[in-house]
């Protein structure tokens, strides 16, 4: 049986003020899996992602990351588990503008001994691994450039390299292509998924755009979980 990297069981969360309720009887992302999670604005995507990351705690049920129930962990334990096992690719990238391209990509390895040790299995330094990733994503000539000087598409590739470094077990990509046109969306996704496949990293791609689903092995829709 394939091991689940991320699993939600009988999950329930409700906002008292709005009455919006999310119920997820069962959802999982397995090792090396590629899952497209589709949902319109207001469908609860951000709520579910926050539950998956342990930022919100469910009122019923549980979320497990690498077999550990997030509700049973302290905030610091949850933070450590996330940085060790999950690479995040945010819609707004969340790059540090005062750092160079290379410095941004190596950041996860400064906070996670596990990801640093995984990175060092394939090179002598973390920087060499970051350079390899950036080159594979077409960003090898921008290593020392401040990320603030890059185009949106270039920043996106830097964010992808940062998410991939150290071979996390899962990448959660939240609307990662919303700033790109259709042609560049598909090109970027192919690069991301190819790199993830090479290191057996699972990818959870969350978007309102159904065109992105074709590159993933499985498709789920938020509508099935709205109470």
CATH class: Alpha Beta
Query: By helix and strand content, what is the structural category?
Result: alpha/beta
| Whole-angstrom Rg | 17 Å
Helical residue percent band: 25-40%
Give the overall pLDDT as a whole number: 91
Note poorly predicted spans: none
What is the tally of helical segments?
7
Report the major sheet: 5 strands, parallel
Range of strand content: 15-25%
Domain count: the total is: 1
Roughly how many Å apart are the termini?
31 Å
Can you write the helix and strand succession as a string? EEEHEEHEHHHHEHEE
Quote the CATH topology.
Rossmann fold
Strand order of the largest sheet: 6-7-8-3-9
Shape: globular
How many strand elements? 9
User: In the CATH hierarchy, what is the superfamily?
Assistant: P-loop containing nucleotide triphosphate hydrolases
CATH architectural group: 3-Layer(aba) Sandwich
Keywords: ATP-binding, Cell inner membrane, Cell membrane, Membrane, Nucleotide-binding, Transport
Protein name: ABC transporter ATP-binding protein
GO molecular function: ATP binding
């Amino acid at each position: 049986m394939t091991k689940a990297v991320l699993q939600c069981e009988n999950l329930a969360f409700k906002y008292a003020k709005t009455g919006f309720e999310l119920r997820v009887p069962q959802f999982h992302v397995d090792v090396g899996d590629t899952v497209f999670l589709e949902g319109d604005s207001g469908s609860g995507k951000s709520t579910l992602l926050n539950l998956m990351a342990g930022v919100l705690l469910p009122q019923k049920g549980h979320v497990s990351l690498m077999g550990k129930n997030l509700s049973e962990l302290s905030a610091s334990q949850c933070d450590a588990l996330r940085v060790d096992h999950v690479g995040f690719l945010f819609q707004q990238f969340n790059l540090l503008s005062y750092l160079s391209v290379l410095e941004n990509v190596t950041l996860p390895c400064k906070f996670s001994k596990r990801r640093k040790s995984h990175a060092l299995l394939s090179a002598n330094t973390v920087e060499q691994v970051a350079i390899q990733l950036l080159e594979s994503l077409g960003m090898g000539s921008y290593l020392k450039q401040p990320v603030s000087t890059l185009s949106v598409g270039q920043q996106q590739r830097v964010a992808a390299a940062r998410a991939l470094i150290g071979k996390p077990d899962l990448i959660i990509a939240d609307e990662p292509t919303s700033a790109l046109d259709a042609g560049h969306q598909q090109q970027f996704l192919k690069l991301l998924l190819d790199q993830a496949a090479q290191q057996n990293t699972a990818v959870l791609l969350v978007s309102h755009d159904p065109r992105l689903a074709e590159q993933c092995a499985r498709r789920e829709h938020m509508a099935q979980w709205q109470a």
